[in-house]
Write the structure tokens for this entry.
Amino acid sequence: MGFVKKISAFAAGLILAGALCGCGNPADNFAPKEFKKISPENAGYVLYVPDSWTADISTGVTTAYVSAKDRSNISFMAFEADDGLIHVDVNGKTTDGAVTTDKPETTVPETKAPAETGTGTGTVTEKPTEVPKIKSTEEYWAYYEADFRKTFGDMEYEVNGENVLLSAKAAKKYVYTATVTGQKYKFMQVVMLDKGTVYIYTYTALPDNYDKNLKSAEAILGYISIGK
């Protein structure tokens, strides 16, 4: 697709291994009713999704989607805020036909019913020489918004920086629409900077499916537990 996926070098190494530096697994590993745990062991966070959803951690980011026919999905990732960035070219589609954007933490749902499994691939292409010291969630979002707009030229906000909670800590919520490879999608992202680590929760869906799965996406968000 020619997009560029930007994640931190710290995240590239440690999230692929399913771990966060210096973080033990949260103590509460008991899944809520009709939910299942999908986060890796020793990830530093616990993430639950509905039992009927399909989990996929093969790309190095913890993700899950509704079904083969409805690729509305969530993802969760964490990385050091001030580490150097790497650029990863994602080679089009996963092997099951699911399109993956190159925005740091979004997975675009497939519009046709794909196979049940698949993995993404990527190649390191460049590393910027300077990254600003990011000290707040607002600074993180401001720094990367310009890059988002390069990828999503028609990005339009519905919610821009609403105060919310992520694992009982202050975070910011952003809801927007954008067109990727000719298809419009709707995104909800909850972003938090805590003790030098950026946490990003993303819900992605076709506009027609967004409200249908929003209750589940919000429940998943509410059950996230970080470092407890």
In short: The longest strand covers residues 169-180. Residues 1-29, 84-105, 111-129 have pLDDT under 50 and may be disordered. The longest helix spans residues 207-223. Residues 4-226 form a domain with the Protein Transport Mog1p; Chain A fold (CATH 3.40.1000.10).
